[in-house]
């Protein structure tokens, strides 16, 4: 994974601190061209991996990338699935079974029901696989070396103790898409223990890491301890804690931590993208200089 | 360890279950649901014992406390049965469909001395907690005007029938969405005592309202408006906000952002004269396990601590939720039918 990854929250009105800013972003990015332009700014700043939700509109971005192969030679996408609000709204309307019937492609559920037999474990896993396939359709022909499960699902299954399902997802994306299965979580300490418990070693985990401990469940100390001592490939997200930490302090903290493989950030303007990228490079250089000095 | 059982593994139920499953002080001793498929998945992939019948779960699993997350019309019967067996109860909101049912639950919880809590999670959100502190501290002076609002995308096209579309089961935007706003107004400004008129409208739903406007009065001096609409798909999820105007300042607050205006320097520490903007990050304590907002974990944790005798059980009690049910009745009775 590259040191810096570009995120997509700003494109889809996900702002954790202000509904007003969310609305402004919605307006700003309602045309796909605006998203593409911002992506080009990121690529121009050397950030060629786009980590994105499987939102319907990402399909248009994928289409554009496929149609302009020359402009996106080193471009990678890390899909994060599912776009949870789609399913959550369907569950509200149709119930859990109804929502599955709506989204599991083909007549898989119907044929199981008609068969009248009890569901087997492999049937549930087939449902999961069909859902993954339907979310992955839009990425056909695009380089997707890591495929993530969104935190709402990772953490839901984690709390329910359904770690086998997490493992099945991990194994399936490896087998079918030749990709690394990654997990987004707000609960790094608990997730890492459970994944190791089912034999997933050195997993890719994207999690909140920031100087003020925002959304670092179990406490900042537990996270720092893990980074210092455990085998895990961490992507730091929410580094700015939704703007609560000044950028320089925020980036400096993360760059000085051991074992952070990548830093995920999102920004709307060319200037903000360039500023964040150069802050990361600057702090990486001074952090490695410090390390050499201590050696 | 507190032994917990859960009735109703739907959307809210599964969310509670995940938080309970991760809670270091909780042992989930039973999950009951009417869906065979849901039970089957839990049987195959979780450690939780499953039951098709909740009364059987109460008998066999013998929990100390029970979470009830089923359609509202069932709250009253189920909560009574659970409490009669001496179990503490956490119920989803709203409490009941009528004042009388709610009153019986309040009395029974009191009589049996059981911990009782309702899932009005906004009271566990840092920004709203800060609003309560500012208002209680008198920093807004004499409050005279408020607006409570909630918008979100529950019904954004004609839908298939489900319990949320049936008035007799607890469906409709008034019970589902407006109840949260009313509860927050009751909590921050004091209970609503009169409703001067209401318009409820349906756009997409056939038998329930999709929007509610009401004129509310807390006292002759303090009055305001309620505006709620669950058919607004410009929001990704429900957004609740409250605006309060007082003689010394004004507050505009939602779950993420708190904007405060003070007319003079007579304001709380860390605030200044004029506009102040604070974010939920300023007020949020970490939780042990995060699923979909700190408030969902915090309310469960608060309940478990109350069962263990470590917190006072005075937030979101049946009694306070019953006050909200009463305002809902006042609103229904004030509907302008012209």
Automatic annotation (TrEMBL), chain A:
<protein>
    <submittedName>
        <fullName>Uncharacterized protein</fullName>
    </submittedName>
</protein>
TrEMBL record, chain B:
<dbReference type="GO" id="GO:0000166">
    <property type="term" value="F:nucleotide binding"/>
</dbReference>
<dbReference type="InterPro" id="IPR055170">
    <property type="entry name" value="GFO_IDH_MocA-like_dom"/>
</dbReference>
<dbReference type="InterPro" id="IPR036291">
    <property type="entry name" value="NAD(P)-bd_dom_sf"/>
</dbReference>
<dbReference type="Pfam" id="PF01408">
    <property type="entry name" value="GFO_IDH_MocA"/>
</dbReference>
<protein>
    <submittedName>
        <fullName>Dehydrogenase</fullName>
    </submittedName>
</protein>
<feature type="domain" description="Gfo/Idh/MocA-like oxidoreductase N-terminal">
    <location>
        <begin position="2"/>
        <end position="120"/>
    </location>
</feature>
<feature type="domain" description="GFO/IDH/MocA-like oxidoreductase">
    <location>
        <begin position="128"/>
        <end position="251"/>
    </location>
</feature>
<dbReference type="Pfam" id="PF22725">
    <property type="entry name" value="GFO_IDH_MocA_C3"/>
</dbReference>
<dbReference type="InterPro" id="IPR000683">
    <property type="entry name" value="Gfo/Idh/MocA-like_OxRdtase_N"/>
</dbReference>
<dbReference type="InterPro" id="IPR051450">
    <property type="entry name" value="Gfo/Idh/MocA_Oxidoreductases"/>
</dbReference>
């Amino acid at each position: 994974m590259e040191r810096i990854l570009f995120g997509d929250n700003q494109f889809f009105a996900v702002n954790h601190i202000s509904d007003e800013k969310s609305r402004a972003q919605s307006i700003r990015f309602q045309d796909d061209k605006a998203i593409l332009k911002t992506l080009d700014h990121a690529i121009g700043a050397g950030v060629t991996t786009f980590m994105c939700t499987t939102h319907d509109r990402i399909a248009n971005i994928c289409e554009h990338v496929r149609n302009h192969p020359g402009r996106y030679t080193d471009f990678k996408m890390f899909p994060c699935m599912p776009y949870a609000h789609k399913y959550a709204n369907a569950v509200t309307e149709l119930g859990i079974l109804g929502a599955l019937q709506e989204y599991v492609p083909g007549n898989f559920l119907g044929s199981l029901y008609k068969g009248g037999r009890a569901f087997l474990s492999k049937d549930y896993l087939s449902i999961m696989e069909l859902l993954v396939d339907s979310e992955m359709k839009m990425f056909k022909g695009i380089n997707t070396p890591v495929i993530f499960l969104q935190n709402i699902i990772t953490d839901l299954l984690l709390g329910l103790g359904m770690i086998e399902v997490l493992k099945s997802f991990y194994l399936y994306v490896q087998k079918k898409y030749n990709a690394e299965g990654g997990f987004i979580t707000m609960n790094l300490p608990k997730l890492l223990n459970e994944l190791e418990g089912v034999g997933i070693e050195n997993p890719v985990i994207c999690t909140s890491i920031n100087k003020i401990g925002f959304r670092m469940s179990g406490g900042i100390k537990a996270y720092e301890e893990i980074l210092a001592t455990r085998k895990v490939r961490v992507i730091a997200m929410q580094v700015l804690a939704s703007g609560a930490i000044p950028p320089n302090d925020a980036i400096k903290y993360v760059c000085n931590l051991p074992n952070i493989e990548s830093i995920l950030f999102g920004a709307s303007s060319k200037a903000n993208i360039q500023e964040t990228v150069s802050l990361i490079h600057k702090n990486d250089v001074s952090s490695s200089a410090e390390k050499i000095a201590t050696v | 360890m507190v032994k917990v059982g859960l009735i109703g593994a739907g959307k809210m139920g599964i969310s509670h279950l995940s938080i309970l499953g991760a809670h270091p002080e909780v042992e989930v001793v039973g999950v009951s649901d009417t869906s065979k498929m849901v039970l089957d998945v839990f049987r195959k992939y979780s450690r939780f014992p499953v039951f098709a019948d909740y009364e059987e779960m109460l008998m066999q699993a013998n929990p100390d406390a029970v979470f009830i997350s089923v359609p509202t019309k069932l709250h009253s019967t189920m909560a009574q049965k659970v409490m009669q067996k001496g179990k503490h109860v956490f119920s989803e909101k709203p409490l009941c469909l009528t004042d009388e049912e709610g009153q019986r639950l309040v009395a029974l919880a009191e009589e049996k001395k059981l911990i009782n809590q309702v899932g009005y999670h906004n009271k566990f959100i840092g920004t709203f907690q800060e609003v309560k502190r500012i208002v209680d501290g008198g920093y807004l002076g004499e409050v005279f005007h408020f607006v409570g609002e909630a918008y979100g995308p529950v019904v954004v096209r004609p839908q298939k029938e489900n319990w949320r579309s049936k008035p007799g089961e607890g469906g409709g935007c008034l019970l589902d969405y407006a109840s949260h706003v009313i509860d927050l107004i009751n909590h921050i400004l004091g209970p609503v005592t009169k409703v001067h008129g209401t318009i409820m409208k349906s756009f997409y739903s056939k038998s329930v309202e999709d929007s509610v406007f009401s004129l509310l009065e807390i006292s002759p001096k303090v009055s305001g408006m309620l505006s709620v609409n669950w058919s607004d798909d410009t929001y990704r999820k429900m957004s609740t906000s409250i605006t309060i105007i007082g003689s010394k300042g004004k507050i505009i607050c939602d779950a993420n952002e708190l904007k405060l205006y003070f007319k003079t320097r007579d304001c709380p520490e860390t605030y200044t004269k004029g506009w102040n903007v604070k974010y939920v990050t300023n007020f949020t304590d970490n939780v042990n396990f995060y699923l979909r907002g700190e408030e969902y974990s915090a309310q469960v944790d608060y309940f478990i601590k109350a069962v263990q005798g470590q917190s006072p059980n005075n937030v979101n009690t049946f009694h306070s939720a019953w006050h909200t049910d009463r305002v809902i009745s006042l609103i229904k009775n004030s509907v302008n039918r012209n």
